[in-house]
Write a structure and sequence with these properties.
By secondary structure, this protein is an alpha/beta fold. The protein has two domains: 216 residues, FAD/NAD(P)-binding domain (3-Layer(bba) Sandwich); 109 residues, D-Amino Acid Oxidase, Chain A, domain 2. The protein is 35% helix and 24% strand. It contains 13 helices and 17 strands. The strands form four sheets. Strands 5-4-13-14-15-12-16 form a seven-stranded mixed β-sheet, sandwiched between helices. It has a five-stranded parallel β-sheet with strand order 7-2-1-11-17, with helices on one face. The longest helix has 30 residues. It is globular and about 60 Å long.
Length: 380
């Protein structure tokens, strides 16, 4: 068991899982996050936890029962709707198996669960890392935006899509997938938007056709988060002279792009309670690998950013965190631990990223409705 100074950059699910398991085995790791506090920003939508990755990590972290108390097994429902509003596929898990599949949990609730499991002051908020300076022998000096710095024998890059730690290992940068989501949402949906709530169901509703579509997902507290997807130029709004802060103009621009779609589905555009957030989707090149470097490694999106159509992002990040923690616990040196971890991490990351690329290309293609229906039927 190494006794080196460990710095985890980023307080997302992967980094927090790693810190939690290390603490359970008496190893201290400091987590540095750029946010000013845990509640300073929205953590995003809902996640389905997979048995062999996210669920496995939660069990390893001793948090399985706490997760079950917060999870929404009914959120496993999957529905596919045609562009004219007809239901093509509707899968509700059998009641007997509803807690044994891929139960859903809000990202914010999952993060709170992990944060609450850590010792006080494990996470140092308001620490935006600006650069890492190699000092030799695997040691790095981390510099933060507030002028402070710290030295670490192991730097774990859990700092997401635009990871600064990644620069120590790789020149790769995320590339635009060709697909943009415009995020919007419905509050108190069952009361205020009953028709759209019924259309969504208890889990996820997708309507995908000819390089466009809608993905609506139930969150807790009666909220429905919707993603309006388009295969389109990354700067589509600039080309259209569109001000993304002009809610009315964005609504009209989106309606013009979905003129052939059912009025029922167009309600996800017109009835927003949250406005519109433009989210172009990025992914790292596949394969993304690096040469082993003493004193530094990556996990989660920093290592294998991929499209959300894999359903694997947070699950893989948490599995990464658990595997890295166990490698550190079981290996005689930190360098041995990194070697052991990366031997497992890199092959599975490539496989998952290839699947994610296929997934988004299938979902946003000319015959996406046919391909998605075939995939759902085969999967379920």
């Amino acid at each position: 068991m190494p006794t080196d100074r460990i710095a985890i950059i980023g307080a997302g699910p992967g980094g927090l899982t790693c810190a939690r398991i290390l603490q359970q085995h008496g190893i201290t790791a400091a987590v540095y996050d750029l946010d000013a506090s845990r509640s300073v920003r929205d953590q995003g939508g809902t996640l389905d936890m997979h048995p062999d990755s996210g669920q496995h990590a939660l069990r390893e972290a001793g948090l399985w029962d706490d997760f079950l108390a917060r999870a929404r097994p009914e959120g496993q429902q999957m529905r596919l709707v045609s562009r004219d509003g007809r239901t093509l596929f509707d899968q509700v898990p059998p009641e007997a198996d509803i807690a044994e599949g891929n139960p859903e949990i809000d990202r914010g609730q999952l993060r709170d669960l992990l944060l609450d499991s850590l010792k006080p002051d494990t996470v140092l908020w308001g620490h935006k890392m600006t650069r890492a300076e190699a000092l030799g022998n695997g040691t790095h000096r981390l510099h933060f935006a507030d002028g402070t710095s710290t030295d670490a024998d192991l730097v774990i890059g859990a700092d997401g899509a635009r990871s600064k730690v990644r620069r120590l290992l790789s020149d790769a940068t995320p590339l635009y997938t060709g697909v943009t989501f415009v995020e919007t949402g419905l509050d108190d949906a069952d009361t205020r938007h009953p028709h759209l709530a019924e259309l969504t169901g208890s889990g996820t509703m997708m309507a995908l056709d000819d390089n466009q579509g809608f993905v609506a997902q139930r969150n807790s507290g009666g909220h429905i988060r919707t993603y309006i997807g388009m295969r389109i130029a990354e700067d589509w709004h600039q080309r259209a002279g569109l001000d993304l802060t002009d809610t009315v103009a964005v609504r009209e621009a989106l309606l013009k792009k979905f003129t052939a779609w059912s009025p029922d589905l167009l309600g996800f555009i017109t009835d927003t309670d949250t406005g519109y957030t433009n989210r172009p989707l990025f992914a790292l090149p596949v394969p993304h690998t690096w040469t082993h470097t003493p004193g530094v490694t990556l996990l989660g999106d920093a290592a294998h950013l991929m499209s959300p159509f894999s359903g694997m992002g947070a699950n893989l990040a948490m599995l990464d965190g658990a595997d890295l923690a166990h490698a550190l616990i079981e290996s005689p040196t930190t360098d041995d631990a990194i070697h052991a971890y990366e031997t497992v991490l890199l092959p599975r990351s490539i496989q998952a990223a290839e699947g994610a690329a296929e997934g988004i290309n299938s979902a946003f293609s000319h015959d996406s409705a046919t391909q998605t229906l075939a995939h759902m039927t085969q999967r379920h």
